[in-house]
Design brief:
The structure holds 3 protein chains of 3 kinds.
Chain A lengths: L1 H12 L2 E6 L3 E6 L1 H13 L5 E10 L4 E10 L4 E10 L15 H12 L30 H9 L10 H9 L9
Parallel strand pairs in A: 2-5
Antiparallel strand pairs in A: 1-2, 3-4, 4-5
Chain B lengths: L1 H36 L9 H10 L9 H19 L18 H23 L2 H32 L4 H7 L8 H4 L1 H15 L23 H26 L6 H21 L5 H27 L2
Chain C lengths: L17 H4 L16 H12 L3 E3 L26 E3 L7 E5 L4 H13 L5 E5 L1 H5 L21 E3 L6 H16 L5 H7 L1 H11 L11
Parallel strand pairs in C: 1-2, 3-4, 4-5
Classes of the chains: A alpha+beta, B mainly alpha, C alpha/beta.
Chain lengths: 181, 308, 210
């Protein structure tokens, strides 16, 4: 049944990179233009009536954000992850808040954390977690969080960081100079 | 005449002191008992006194207006006023307070007075939780006043008097003369109302320590709060003394008073630890159904039994 | 931190809109003197130390350590400790773990609404030096820049025993008259405010929450 559906999706929407992850997760990739149409089709025709979450990954080397829409089918107990790549320098995606009302909260968070724009999504520009944020969106990988923290919040003198592995070597084998062999 | 009034006022101050201290100790005793049930040690007996002292010596206080000042004052005036007209020890000139022929009516009025003053004061603090707490508290109070008033009317008919002293006098001469045994229907209605009065669960929705921080006194702090804490102990003990006088034969000595009031208080505590909390609509419905019905039955019962 | 006398007698409340400014007080807080007679002050301090009411505001993950304090195993109520759900009535603020900027705003607001004398126990490594969140974009690294701290409890997370020990130590300090955080806050009010406004960018509340 799942393979039938996937064949149809390849034909109608040109989905690629289909990966089956047992027991019940299938992911596929679709272009930005076909994305909203595909998700609507899956919800209305194919029984994927539940939106688990919307997530995002920053693939800075490829210059893309990968949006992951995880859908769930209550009848067949199948999860379907729809991957959509959008360009980092033009981060914009069709809003799906008309399909699931809860989507606008995810989109608000994505706008705040990654700076992705969703035209038409309600209350998009409102602060979600960060209040009065004035720098680059913090989950972008080119955002230097250590530098920002040191500048904004300062650094307490006397603070030391220990790598647990090295520290425990010295603690457990002191007379071998931290050599575990 | 003047000297006599001063003497009575002096005697009343003594009663006030004893009853307040007793109320605080009872509170600590109950806290410790509950703690023991839960396997804890619990607060020391001096804790309520330290709490009052600490709130009194706070260095700062803010005001929300004139009614905010007057709220706790009205509250404690209600507590003192209630006690002032109740004879605490039967047959004692010293602890008879200002009781007179019609004191029962005045006492019932004074019990209401403090709550209304508190409602005005807490309302001016402007805190939304205070307003919610007041709305719940006043509606619940209106509900439990009905069975209580019916029970009081019933015993007024039974003893044909409005004087608490005479009601106590009529119950002397052995336990079988107590209202509890001569008019158990009225006592039942009043004890159900008493559960609502003490504010233990299932009727603690107006304080609701978890949802609306602590209801009406949310904004009260420093010296205002110490007045409220004092009143809580005083008013609680006063209500116990009133119930003891009306339904359990009064007391001829302090030891008898302590044993009886503690027993009455334990009713509310035992019910409180055993039952979960009612919502306000449920508690109002509860009071308007069975306790009110019992109150009405008690009046009919009294009419049939004691009037010919 | 050095003491700077302020020339302004009232607060600006610049974060509020014009009509909101009418609703809030703009008075500056004043430091409070102890009682002139030492014996009375000592007695008052004894009462304060033996009746510590904790503000029930869990600011981070270490607040989970507050709950066992009231259970049968630790039973803090025997030391006069009680939870209090409103800042108006509580005297101890336990900063439970990391403080994000969003929480800091609420902490400042709650702390200023508490009535003095008031005390702060900072729990865990995060308020002291950032702890494991030292490089986070959203959590502050030194809590004492923003509010006066009376006692730090280190650990990640500290055990309830450590917290109980901190409470006992705080009691000793209060009895000795050493905990004067509320006055320190008011004497260095402008420095503390400047530090707070440096990290809280959307300051839409009065400068002092009376």
């Amino acid at each position: 049944m799942m393979s039938e559906l996937l064949d149809r999706l390849v034909r109608d929407f040109g989905v690629t990179d289909i990966t089956e992850r047992p027991p019940a997760i299938t992911t596929l990739k679709v272009s930005k233009e076909n994305g909203e149409r595909l998700i609507r089709e899956l919800r209305d025709r194919e029984g994927f009536t539940h939106l688990n979450f919307i997530a995002c990954t920053d693939w800075i080397e490829d210059g893309i954000f990968r949006l992951i829409y995880m859908l769930h089918n209550y009848d067949s107990k199948q999860n379907l992850g729809v991957h959509i790549d959008i360009k980092r320098d033009h981060a914009e995606m069709t809003s799906i808040h008309t399909l699931w009302a809860q989507a606008w909260t995810y989109q608000r968070e994505l706008r705040e954390m990654y700076g992705i724009h969703f035209p038409g999504s309600p209350r998009l520009e409102e602060d979600f977690c960060l209040e009065g944020w004035d720098a680059m969106p913090p989950m972008r990988r080119d955002f230097d969080t250590a530098k920002y923290s040191a500048e904004r919040f300062g650094h307490r003198e006397g603070r030391v960081s220990l790598v647990p592995r090295d520290h425990m070597k010295v603690q457990l084998y002191p007379n071998r100079g931290g050599d575990e062999s | 005449m003047i000297a006599e009034w001063f003497g009575r006022a002096g005697n009343f101050s003594l009663t006030l002191l004893i009853v307040t201290v007793y109320g605080l100790l009872v509170g600590a005793f109950i806290e410790r008992t509950i703690a023991k049930v839960q396997g804890r040690i619990g607060i020391p007996y001096r804790q309520p006194f330290i709490n009052i002292l600490k709130t009194l010596v706070k260095r700062t206080a803010v005001s929300h207006g004139i009614m905010f000042y007057l709220g706790p004052v009205f509250r404690i005036a209600g507590g003192i006023g209630t006690l002032a007209f109740i004879p605490v020890i039967y047959g004692s000139e010293t602890f008879a307070n200002f009781s007179y022929a019609g004191d029962l009516f005045l006492v019932i009025y004074f019990m209401f007075f403090g709550q209304l003053g508190m409602a005005l004061g807490a309302g001016e603090s402007g805190h939304p939780y205070s307003a919610i707490g007041i709305a719940r508290g006043l509606s619940q109070m209106t509900a439990y006043e009905v069975p209580f008033a019916l029970a009081v009317i019933s015993i007024v008919i039974q003893y044909d008097t409005l004087s608490i002293t005479e009601i106590v006098a009529a119950q002397q001469g052995g336990w079988q003369h107590w209202t509890l045994f001569t008019n158990w229907v009225a006592t039942l209605a009043a004890m159900l109302a008493f559960l609502g009065m003490t504010g233990y669960s299932p009727f603690d929705i107006f304080l609701a320590p978890q949802e609306i921080p602590i209801g009406p006194p949310t904004e009260f702090h420093s010296a205002y709060l110490s007045l409220l804490q004092t009143n809580r102990a005083l008013f609680g003990a006063t209500k116990l003394v009133l119930f003891m006088n009306l339904f359990f034969g009064g007391a001829t000595g302090w030891i008898e008073l302590m044993i009886k009031t503690l027993a009455i208080y334990m009713v509310a505590v035992v019910v409180g630890v055993a039952f979960p909390r009612f919502r306000v609509d449920q508690s109002i419905r509860f009071f308007f159904k069975i306790p009110t019905l019992i109150g009405i039955i008690s009046i009919i019962y009294v009419q049939m039994m004691f009037t010919s | 931190m050095k003491k700077t006398p302020s020339t302004l007698s009232t607060l600006e409340n610049a974060g509020l809109s014009a009509e909101d400014q009418l609703l809030f007080s703009n008075a500056r807080p004043r430091p409070y003197e102890p009682y002139p007679i030492k014996a009375i002050e000592d007695f008052a301090n004894w009462a304060r130390a033996n009746s510590l009411w904790i503000l029930a505001f869990g600011t981070g993950c270490c607040s989970i350590e507050l709950r066992p304090l009231m259970t049968a195993r630790f039973d803090a109520s025997r030391f006069g400790v009680a939870g209090r759900p409103t800042p108006r009535q509580s005297s101890v603020f336990i900063i439970g773990g990391y403080v994000s900027v969003k929480t800091l705003k609420r902490i400042v607001r709650s702390y200023e609404q508490m009535q003095g004398p008031k005390f702060i126990i900072a729990l865990g490594s995060c308020p002291a030096n950032g702890g494991m969140y030292f490089d986070s974009y959203n959590t502050i690294n030194q809590f004492d820049l923003y509010l006066p701290v009376d006692l730090y409890v280190t650990g990640c997370m500290p055990r309830p025993e450590a917290l109980l020990g901190a409470i006992l130590e705080l009691q000793d300090d209060i009895k000795a008259g050493k905990c004067d955080g509320a006055n320190r806050y008011i004497e260095h009010f402008d420095e503390y405010k400047a530090n707070q406004k440096k990290v809280i960018k959307d300051w839409n509340m009065p400068d002092y929450n009376w």
